[in-house]
Specification:
The chain is α/β, with parallel strands linked by helices. 42% of the residues lie in helices and 16% in strands. It is elongated, with a radius of gyration of 26 Å.
Length: 467
Protein backbone atom coordinates (compact mmCIF):
# COMPACT_ATOMS: atom_id res chain seq x y z
CA UNK A 1 0.00 0.00 0.00
CA UNK A 2 1.24 3.49 -0.87
CA UNK A 3 2.38 5.56 2.09
CA UNK A 4 0.16 8.55 2.91
CA UNK A 5 2.14 11.79 3.19
CA UNK A 6 0.60 15.08 4.31
CA UNK A 7 2.05 18.57 4.65
CA UNK A 8 2.05 19.46 8.34
CA UNK A 9 1.84 23.22 8.91
CA UNK A 10 3.34 22.69 12.37
CA UNK A 11 6.60 21.17 11.09
CA UNK A 12 6.44 22.99 7.71
CA UNK A 13 7.17 19.78 5.81
CA UNK A 14 5.53 16.66 4.42
CA UNK A 15 5.31 13.84 6.94
CA UNK A 16 4.23 10.22 6.76
CA UNK A 17 0.81 10.03 8.37
CA UNK A 18 0.37 7.47 11.14
CA UNK A 19 -2.63 7.65 13.48
CA UNK A 20 -2.08 7.86 17.21
CA UNK A 21 -4.30 4.81 17.78
CA UNK A 22 -4.15 1.96 15.29
CA UNK A 23 -6.41 2.60 12.28
CA UNK A 24 -8.61 5.17 14.03
CA UNK A 25 -8.28 8.86 13.12
CA UNK A 26 -9.52 11.77 15.22
CA UNK A 27 -10.27 14.62 12.79
CA UNK A 28 -11.40 18.14 13.73
CA UNK A 29 -12.33 20.87 11.26
CA UNK A 30 -13.16 24.47 12.10
CA UNK A 31 -16.77 24.99 11.08
CA UNK A 32 -18.73 28.11 10.17
CA UNK A 33 -19.68 31.12 12.25
CA UNK A 34 -23.40 31.02 11.57
CA UNK A 35 -24.30 34.68 11.09
CA UNK A 36 -24.46 34.64 7.27
CA UNK A 37 -24.19 32.35 4.26
CA UNK A 38 -20.90 30.63 3.49
CA UNK A 39 -19.13 32.01 0.40
CA UNK A 40 -17.30 29.92 -2.19
CA UNK A 41 -13.93 30.66 -0.58
CA UNK A 42 -15.20 29.07 2.63
CA UNK A 43 -16.56 26.13 0.67
CA UNK A 44 -13.20 25.50 -0.96
CA UNK A 45 -11.77 24.79 2.51
CA UNK A 46 -14.61 22.44 3.42
CA UNK A 47 -14.11 20.64 0.11
CA UNK A 48 -10.37 20.19 0.81
CA UNK A 49 -11.27 18.68 4.18
CA UNK A 50 -13.74 16.36 2.44
CA UNK A 51 -10.99 15.16 0.07
CA UNK A 52 -8.73 14.53 3.05
CA UNK A 53 -11.41 12.55 4.85
CA UNK A 54 -12.18 10.51 1.72
CA UNK A 55 -8.46 9.81 1.29
CA UNK A 56 -8.15 8.59 4.86
CA UNK A 57 -11.12 6.25 4.32
CA UNK A 58 -9.64 5.15 0.94
CA UNK A 59 -6.56 4.04 2.87
CA UNK A 60 -8.61 1.97 5.27
CA UNK A 61 -8.69 4.34 8.26
CA UNK A 62 -11.77 4.73 10.46
CA UNK A 63 -12.34 8.46 10.77
CA UNK A 64 -14.23 10.26 13.51
CA UNK A 65 -14.87 13.71 12.07
CA UNK A 66 -15.95 16.52 14.38
CA UNK A 67 -17.00 19.95 13.11
CA UNK A 68 -17.99 22.88 15.29
CA UNK A 69 -20.71 25.44 14.77
CA UNK A 70 -19.63 28.83 16.14
CA UNK A 71 -22.86 30.38 17.36
CA UNK A 72 -21.34 32.77 19.91
CA UNK A 73 -18.07 34.57 20.67
CA UNK A 74 -16.75 35.37 17.19
CA UNK A 75 -16.29 39.15 17.22
CA UNK A 76 -16.07 41.46 14.22
CA UNK A 77 -12.43 42.29 15.06
CA UNK A 78 -9.42 40.01 15.50
CA UNK A 79 -8.46 42.34 18.36
CA UNK A 80 -11.09 40.96 20.78
CA UNK A 81 -13.16 44.07 20.13
CA UNK A 82 -16.27 44.80 18.13
CA UNK A 83 -19.65 43.15 18.12
CA UNK A 84 -20.52 39.47 18.25
CA UNK A 85 -21.28 38.49 14.64
CA UNK A 86 -24.37 36.42 15.47
CA UNK A 87 -25.85 39.11 17.73
CA UNK A 88 -25.11 41.73 15.08
CA UNK A 89 -26.95 39.69 12.42
CA UNK A 90 -29.86 39.19 14.82
CA UNK A 91 -30.24 42.93 15.25
CA UNK A 92 -30.09 43.59 11.50
CA UNK A 93 -32.55 40.83 10.60
CA UNK A 94 -34.81 41.47 13.60
CA UNK A 95 -34.61 37.90 14.81
CA UNK A 96 -33.22 36.29 17.94
CA UNK A 97 -29.58 35.22 17.98
CA UNK A 98 -30.76 31.63 18.34
CA UNK A 99 -32.96 31.93 15.26
CA UNK A 100 -30.08 33.42 13.26
CA UNK A 101 -27.74 30.60 14.29
CA UNK A 102 -30.31 27.92 13.47
CA UNK A 103 -31.17 29.45 10.06
CA UNK A 104 -27.58 29.79 8.84
CA UNK A 105 -26.65 26.37 10.22
CA UNK A 106 -29.36 24.85 8.01
CA UNK A 107 -28.15 26.90 5.04
CA UNK A 108 -24.58 25.71 5.58
CA UNK A 109 -25.61 22.06 5.77
CA UNK A 110 -27.59 22.51 2.55
CA UNK A 111 -24.46 23.85 0.81
CA UNK A 112 -22.46 20.83 1.98
CA UNK A 113 -25.14 18.53 0.59
CA UNK A 114 -25.19 20.31 -2.77
CA UNK A 115 -21.39 20.12 -2.97
CA UNK A 116 -21.51 16.39 -2.16
CA UNK A 117 -19.38 16.99 0.94
CA UNK A 118 -19.76 14.17 3.45
CA UNK A 119 -21.12 15.65 6.71
CA UNK A 120 -19.13 15.21 9.94
CA UNK A 121 -19.86 12.38 12.33
CA UNK A 122 -20.33 14.92 15.12
CA UNK A 123 -21.73 18.45 14.97
CA UNK A 124 -21.03 20.46 18.10
CA UNK A 125 -22.13 24.04 18.91
CA UNK A 126 -20.09 26.45 21.00
CA UNK A 127 -23.15 27.18 23.15
CA UNK A 128 -23.29 23.48 24.11
CA UNK A 129 -19.95 23.65 25.93
CA UNK A 130 -20.06 26.84 28.06
CA UNK A 131 -19.42 24.91 31.30
CA UNK A 132 -16.40 23.12 29.82
CA UNK A 133 -15.01 26.41 28.51
CA UNK A 134 -15.27 27.96 31.95
CA UNK A 135 -13.50 24.88 33.37
CA UNK A 136 -10.61 25.33 30.90
CA UNK A 137 -10.21 29.02 31.78
CA UNK A 138 -10.11 28.10 35.49
CA UNK A 139 -7.26 25.64 34.79
CA UNK A 140 -5.36 28.36 32.93
CA UNK A 141 -6.01 30.81 35.74
CA UNK A 142 -4.75 28.34 38.36
CA UNK A 143 -1.55 27.84 36.34
CA UNK A 144 -0.92 31.57 36.10
CA UNK A 145 -1.65 32.09 32.39
CA UNK A 146 -4.42 34.67 32.76
CA UNK A 147 -4.98 38.27 33.79
CA UNK A 148 -8.07 40.40 34.15
CA UNK A 149 -8.96 43.61 32.32
CA UNK A 150 -12.07 45.76 32.45
CA UNK A 151 -13.56 43.94 29.45
CA UNK A 152 -12.56 40.34 30.17
CA UNK A 153 -10.08 37.61 31.10
CA UNK A 154 -7.00 37.40 28.87
CA UNK A 155 -4.35 34.78 28.11
CA UNK A 156 -0.80 35.93 28.86
CA UNK A 157 1.19 34.70 25.86
CA UNK A 158 4.54 35.68 27.38
CA UNK A 159 4.05 32.94 29.98
CA UNK A 160 4.18 30.24 27.27
CA UNK A 161 7.62 29.77 25.74
CA UNK A 162 6.30 27.77 22.80
CA UNK A 163 3.75 30.44 21.79
CA UNK A 164 3.67 31.07 18.03
CA UNK A 165 5.37 27.86 16.89
CA UNK A 166 2.75 27.47 14.16
CA UNK A 167 3.85 30.80 12.67
CA UNK A 168 6.10 31.00 9.62
CA UNK A 169 9.76 31.44 10.58
CA UNK A 170 10.97 34.94 11.49
CA UNK A 171 7.38 36.23 11.76
CA UNK A 172 6.52 38.76 14.44
CA UNK A 173 3.11 40.18 15.28
CA UNK A 174 3.11 43.91 15.96
CA UNK A 175 0.35 46.09 17.36
CA UNK A 176 -1.16 48.19 14.62
CA UNK A 177 -0.03 45.73 11.93
CA UNK A 178 -2.56 42.93 12.25
CA UNK A 179 -4.15 43.57 15.64
CA UNK A 180 -5.24 46.66 17.55
CA UNK A 181 -4.37 46.97 21.22
CA UNK A 182 -7.18 46.68 23.76
CA UNK A 183 -6.56 49.20 26.60
CA UNK A 184 -4.56 47.47 29.33
CA UNK A 185 -3.58 44.47 27.20
CA UNK A 186 0.04 43.59 27.95
CA UNK A 187 1.05 42.66 24.38
CA UNK A 188 -0.65 42.39 20.96
CA UNK A 189 -0.58 38.58 20.95
CA UNK A 190 -2.57 38.24 24.21
CA UNK A 191 -6.17 37.20 23.58
CA UNK A 192 -9.53 37.04 25.33
CA UNK A 193 -10.65 33.86 27.06
CA UNK A 194 -13.86 35.35 28.48
CA UNK A 195 -15.49 38.66 27.57
CA UNK A 196 -17.67 40.55 30.01
CA UNK A 197 -21.04 41.87 28.96
CA UNK A 198 -20.59 45.68 28.84
CA UNK A 199 -22.45 47.68 31.46
CA UNK A 200 -25.90 48.73 30.35
CA UNK A 201 -25.95 46.10 27.57
CA UNK A 202 -28.26 43.09 27.53
CA UNK A 203 -26.92 40.35 25.29
CA UNK A 204 -29.07 37.48 24.06
CA UNK A 205 -26.21 35.04 24.55
CA UNK A 206 -24.50 35.49 27.91
CA UNK A 207 -23.74 33.31 30.91
CA UNK A 208 -22.59 33.59 34.52
CA UNK A 209 -18.95 32.79 35.27
CA UNK A 210 -16.55 33.07 38.25
CA UNK A 211 -15.29 36.36 36.75
CA UNK A 212 -18.56 37.99 35.74
CA UNK A 213 -21.43 37.63 33.32
CA UNK A 214 -20.37 37.36 29.70
CA UNK A 215 -19.44 34.94 26.92
CA UNK A 216 -16.42 32.85 25.85
CA UNK A 217 -13.64 33.84 23.49
CA UNK A 218 -13.66 32.30 20.02
CA UNK A 219 -10.25 30.62 20.39
CA UNK A 220 -11.25 28.90 23.63
CA UNK A 221 -14.34 27.34 22.08
CA UNK A 222 -12.51 25.17 19.53
CA UNK A 223 -10.05 23.84 22.12
CA UNK A 224 -12.88 22.65 24.32
CA UNK A 225 -15.08 21.24 21.57
CA UNK A 226 -12.28 19.28 19.90
CA UNK A 227 -10.96 17.81 23.17
CA UNK A 228 -14.47 16.98 24.39
CA UNK A 229 -15.08 14.74 21.36
CA UNK A 230 -11.58 13.54 20.42
CA UNK A 231 -9.41 13.76 23.55
CA UNK A 232 -5.92 15.25 23.59
CA UNK A 233 -3.89 14.92 21.52
CA UNK A 234 -5.89 13.94 18.44
CA UNK A 235 -4.65 13.24 14.92
CA UNK A 236 -5.62 16.07 12.54
CA UNK A 237 -6.85 19.64 12.84
CA UNK A 238 -7.82 21.55 9.68
CA UNK A 239 -8.91 24.98 8.55
CA UNK A 240 -8.09 27.81 6.17
CA UNK A 241 -4.69 29.52 6.02
CA UNK A 242 -6.28 32.59 7.61
CA UNK A 243 -6.51 30.60 10.86
CA UNK A 244 -2.76 29.97 11.16
CA UNK A 245 -1.52 33.25 12.65
CA UNK A 246 -4.17 33.83 15.30
CA UNK A 247 -7.00 31.32 15.78
CA UNK A 248 -5.04 28.06 15.51
CA UNK A 249 -1.99 29.56 17.20
CA UNK A 250 -4.18 30.50 20.16
CA UNK A 251 -5.84 27.08 20.25
CA UNK A 252 -2.43 25.41 20.47
CA UNK A 253 -1.34 27.82 23.21
CA UNK A 254 -4.31 27.11 25.48
CA UNK A 255 -4.06 23.33 25.12
CA UNK A 256 -0.34 23.26 25.84
CA UNK A 257 -0.62 25.69 28.74
CA UNK A 258 -3.52 23.82 30.38
CA UNK A 259 -2.59 20.20 29.70
CA UNK A 260 1.09 20.19 28.74
CA UNK A 261 0.24 18.31 25.56
CA UNK A 262 -0.05 19.22 21.87
CA UNK A 263 -3.65 19.67 20.78
CA UNK A 264 -3.21 17.81 17.49
CA UNK A 265 -0.43 15.93 15.72
CA UNK A 266 -1.09 17.24 12.19
CA UNK A 267 -2.28 20.70 11.17
CA UNK A 268 -3.43 21.14 7.57
CA UNK A 269 -4.55 24.39 5.94
CA UNK A 270 -6.24 25.27 2.66
CA UNK A 271 -5.12 28.31 0.65
CA UNK A 272 -7.30 31.26 -0.34
CA UNK A 273 -9.62 31.46 -3.31
CA UNK A 274 -9.20 34.65 -5.35
CA UNK A 275 -11.81 36.01 -7.75
CA UNK A 276 -10.61 37.26 -11.14
CA UNK A 277 -7.13 37.61 -9.66
CA UNK A 278 -8.28 39.68 -6.66
CA UNK A 279 -8.78 38.81 -3.01
CA UNK A 280 -12.42 38.04 -2.25
CA UNK A 281 -13.75 41.04 -0.31
CA UNK A 282 -16.95 43.03 0.16
CA UNK A 283 -15.12 46.17 -0.99
CA UNK A 284 -14.40 44.47 -4.31
CA UNK A 285 -17.99 43.28 -4.68
CA UNK A 286 -16.73 39.80 -5.55
CA UNK A 287 -18.06 37.64 -2.73
CA UNK A 288 -20.14 34.85 -4.25
CA UNK A 289 -22.31 32.25 -2.58
CA UNK A 290 -23.02 28.82 -4.01
CA UNK A 291 -26.53 30.02 -4.80
CA UNK A 292 -25.06 32.77 -7.02
CA UNK A 293 -23.35 30.10 -9.12
CA UNK A 294 -26.54 28.06 -9.34
CA UNK A 295 -28.55 31.13 -10.43
CA UNK A 296 -26.13 31.55 -13.34
CA UNK A 297 -26.81 27.98 -14.47
CA UNK A 298 -23.82 26.21 -12.93
CA UNK A 299 -23.91 22.96 -11.02
CA UNK A 300 -22.41 22.96 -7.51
CA UNK A 301 -20.38 19.97 -8.66
CA UNK A 302 -18.84 22.10 -11.42
CA UNK A 303 -17.38 24.26 -8.65
CA UNK A 304 -16.25 21.10 -6.89
CA UNK A 305 -14.50 20.01 -10.09
CA UNK A 306 -12.85 23.42 -10.41
CA UNK A 307 -11.44 23.12 -6.88
CA UNK A 308 -10.02 19.69 -7.73
CA UNK A 309 -7.99 21.21 -10.58
CA UNK A 310 -5.85 23.17 -8.08
CA UNK A 311 -3.78 21.78 -5.21
CA UNK A 312 -5.22 22.75 -1.84
CA UNK A 313 -1.98 24.50 -0.80
CA UNK A 314 -2.04 26.75 -3.87
CA UNK A 315 -4.22 29.82 -4.38
CA UNK A 316 -7.16 29.12 -6.69
CA UNK A 317 -8.20 31.87 -9.08
CA UNK A 318 -11.95 31.72 -9.68
CA UNK A 319 -13.26 33.08 -12.97
CA UNK A 320 -16.56 32.50 -14.70
CA UNK A 321 -14.62 31.17 -17.69
CA UNK A 322 -12.80 28.59 -15.56
CA UNK A 323 -16.10 27.56 -13.96
CA UNK A 324 -17.64 27.11 -17.42
CA UNK A 325 -14.65 25.02 -18.50
CA UNK A 326 -15.05 22.89 -15.38
CA UNK A 327 -18.74 22.37 -16.08
CA UNK A 328 -17.93 21.31 -19.65
CA UNK A 329 -15.24 18.93 -18.39
CA UNK A 330 -17.65 17.43 -15.88
CA UNK A 331 -20.33 16.97 -18.54
CA UNK A 332 -17.74 15.17 -20.67
CA UNK A 333 -16.81 12.97 -17.72
CA UNK A 334 -20.45 12.08 -17.18
CA UNK A 335 -20.73 11.17 -20.86
CA UNK A 336 -17.58 9.01 -20.63
CA UNK A 337 -19.13 7.28 -17.64
CA UNK A 338 -22.39 6.62 -19.52
CA UNK A 339 -20.46 5.11 -22.40
CA UNK A 340 -18.70 2.62 -20.14
CA UNK A 341 -21.64 1.45 -18.01
CA UNK A 342 -21.58 -2.36 -18.30
CA UNK A 343 -24.64 -4.45 -19.04
CA UNK A 344 -26.42 -5.84 -16.01
CA UNK A 345 -24.70 -8.99 -14.82
CA UNK A 346 -21.55 -8.38 -16.87
CA UNK A 347 -18.50 -10.07 -15.36
CA UNK A 348 -15.48 -8.07 -14.30
CA UNK A 349 -11.94 -9.35 -13.83
CA UNK A 350 -9.30 -6.64 -13.29
CA UNK A 351 -6.34 -6.84 -15.65
CA UNK A 352 -2.77 -5.85 -14.87
CA UNK A 353 -3.46 -2.51 -16.59
CA UNK A 354 -6.42 -1.90 -14.29
CA UNK A 355 -4.26 -2.61 -11.24
CA UNK A 356 -1.51 -0.30 -12.48
CA UNK A 357 -3.94 2.59 -12.82
CA UNK A 358 -5.40 1.90 -9.39
CA UNK A 359 -1.94 1.73 -7.81
CA UNK A 360 -0.79 4.91 -9.55
CA UNK A 361 -3.93 6.77 -8.47
CA UNK A 362 -3.36 5.82 -4.85
CA UNK A 363 0.27 6.95 -5.06
CA UNK A 364 -0.75 10.34 -6.46
CA UNK A 365 -3.57 11.07 -4.03
CA UNK A 366 -1.46 9.84 -1.12
CA UNK A 367 1.17 12.44 -1.98
CA UNK A 368 -0.45 15.29 -0.07
CA UNK A 369 -3.80 15.04 -1.87
CA UNK A 370 -2.56 15.89 -5.36
CA UNK A 371 -5.99 16.15 -7.00
CA UNK A 372 -4.82 17.96 -10.19
CA UNK A 373 -2.44 15.11 -11.00
CA UNK A 374 -5.08 12.55 -10.07
CA UNK A 375 -7.56 14.18 -12.48
CA UNK A 376 -4.96 14.08 -15.25
CA UNK A 377 -4.52 10.35 -14.63
CA UNK A 378 -8.30 9.85 -14.82
CA UNK A 379 -8.51 11.49 -18.24
CA UNK A 380 -5.50 9.53 -19.54
CA UNK A 381 -7.20 6.33 -18.39
CA UNK A 382 -10.45 7.12 -20.25
CA UNK A 383 -8.47 7.36 -23.53
CA UNK A 384 -6.38 4.24 -22.95
CA UNK A 385 -7.45 1.68 -25.57
CA UNK A 386 -5.73 -1.12 -23.66
CA UNK A 387 -8.30 -0.79 -20.86
CA UNK A 388 -11.73 -2.30 -21.53
CA UNK A 389 -14.91 -0.21 -21.09
CA UNK A 390 -16.00 -2.24 -18.07
CA UNK A 391 -12.59 -1.71 -16.45
CA UNK A 392 -12.80 2.00 -17.17
CA UNK A 393 -16.19 2.14 -15.50
CA UNK A 394 -14.93 0.47 -12.33
CA UNK A 395 -11.83 2.68 -12.27
CA UNK A 396 -14.01 5.77 -12.65
CA UNK A 397 -16.11 4.72 -9.67
CA UNK A 398 -13.00 3.87 -7.67
CA UNK A 399 -11.39 7.26 -8.37
CA UNK A 400 -14.66 8.99 -7.56
CA UNK A 401 -14.44 7.70 -4.00
CA UNK A 402 -11.97 10.59 -3.69
CA UNK A 403 -13.32 13.11 -6.23
CA UNK A 404 -16.95 12.88 -5.07
CA UNK A 405 -18.40 13.94 -8.43
CA UNK A 406 -21.40 11.63 -8.29
CA UNK A 407 -20.34 9.21 -11.04
CA UNK A 408 -22.16 6.31 -9.41
CA UNK A 409 -25.47 8.16 -10.00
CA UNK A 410 -24.93 8.29 -13.76
CA UNK A 411 -27.36 5.97 -15.55
CA UNK A 412 -27.37 4.50 -19.03
CA UNK A 413 -28.95 6.96 -21.42
CA UNK A 414 -32.42 6.06 -22.73
CA UNK A 415 -33.15 8.30 -25.70
CA UNK A 416 -36.82 8.70 -26.77
CA UNK A 417 -37.71 7.40 -30.23
CA UNK A 418 -38.77 10.88 -31.36
CA UNK A 419 -35.30 12.24 -30.57
CA UNK A 420 -33.57 9.31 -32.30
CA UNK A 421 -35.69 9.84 -35.40
CA UNK A 422 -34.86 13.58 -35.46
CA UNK A 423 -31.14 12.82 -35.09
CA UNK A 424 -31.32 10.34 -37.96
CA UNK A 425 -33.16 12.84 -40.20
CA UNK A 426 -30.69 15.59 -39.26
CA UNK A 427 -27.77 13.36 -40.21
CA UNK A 428 -29.34 12.79 -43.65
CA UNK A 429 -29.64 16.57 -44.21
CA UNK A 430 -26.09 17.09 -42.98
CA UNK A 431 -24.69 14.52 -45.43
CA UNK A 432 -26.58 16.25 -48.27
CA UNK A 433 -25.04 19.57 -47.25
CA UNK A 434 -28.39 21.09 -46.27
CA UNK A 435 -27.05 22.72 -43.11
CA UNK A 436 -29.96 25.12 -42.73
CA UNK A 437 -32.40 22.24 -42.15
CA UNK A 438 -29.74 20.38 -40.16
CA UNK A 439 -29.34 23.31 -37.77
CA UNK A 440 -33.09 23.73 -37.42
CA UNK A 441 -33.38 20.08 -36.36
CA UNK A 442 -30.46 20.48 -33.94
CA UNK A 443 -32.37 23.33 -32.25
CA UNK A 444 -35.50 21.22 -32.06
CA UNK A 445 -33.55 18.34 -30.49
CA UNK A 446 -32.12 20.76 -27.91
CA UNK A 447 -35.63 21.97 -27.04
CA UNK A 448 -36.45 18.33 -26.25
CA UNK A 449 -33.52 18.21 -23.80
CA UNK A 450 -30.71 16.65 -25.84
CA UNK A 451 -27.49 17.72 -27.54
CA UNK A 452 -26.03 16.25 -30.71
CA UNK A 453 -22.26 15.95 -31.10
CA UNK A 454 -20.92 15.15 -34.58
CA UNK A 455 -18.01 12.70 -34.51
CA UNK A 456 -16.07 10.65 -37.06
CA UNK A 457 -18.05 7.56 -36.03
CA UNK A 458 -21.42 9.30 -36.29
CA UNK A 459 -23.62 11.54 -34.13
CA UNK A 460 -23.56 11.15 -30.36
CA UNK A 461 -26.45 12.21 -28.19
CA UNK A 462 -26.33 13.48 -24.62
CA UNK A 463 -28.89 15.15 -22.34
CA UNK A 464 -28.70 18.91 -21.79
CA UNK A 465 -29.47 18.52 -18.09
CA UNK A 466 -26.30 18.33 -16.05
CA UNK A 467 -26.88 14.99 -14.38
Amino acid sequence: MAILKLYNSLSRKEEVFKPLKGKRVGFYTCGPTVYSYAHIGNLRTYLFEDILKRTLAYNGYRVKHVMNITDVGHLTSQADTGEDKVEMAARKERKSAWQIAAFYTRAFKKDLFRMNIIPPDVWIRATQTIKEQIDLIRILEKKGFTYKLADGIYFDTKRLRSYGRLWPKKMKLKAGARIEMVPGKKRPTDFALWKFTPKGVKRQMEWNSPWGRGFPGWHTECVVMSIKELGIPFDIHCGGVDHILIHHTNEIAQAEAAYGKPLAKFWLHCEFLNVEGKKMAKSEGNIFKLEDLIQKGFSPLAFRYLCLTCHYRSKLNFTWQSLKASQNALENLYQKTRETIPARGASFSPSSGFKRYQKRFREIINHDLDTPKALALLWNMTEDKKISPVEKYHLLLDFDRIFGLGLKKIKRLRIPKKVRDLVKLREEYRKKGDFKKSDRLRNEIERLGYLVEDTQTGPKIRPTQFL
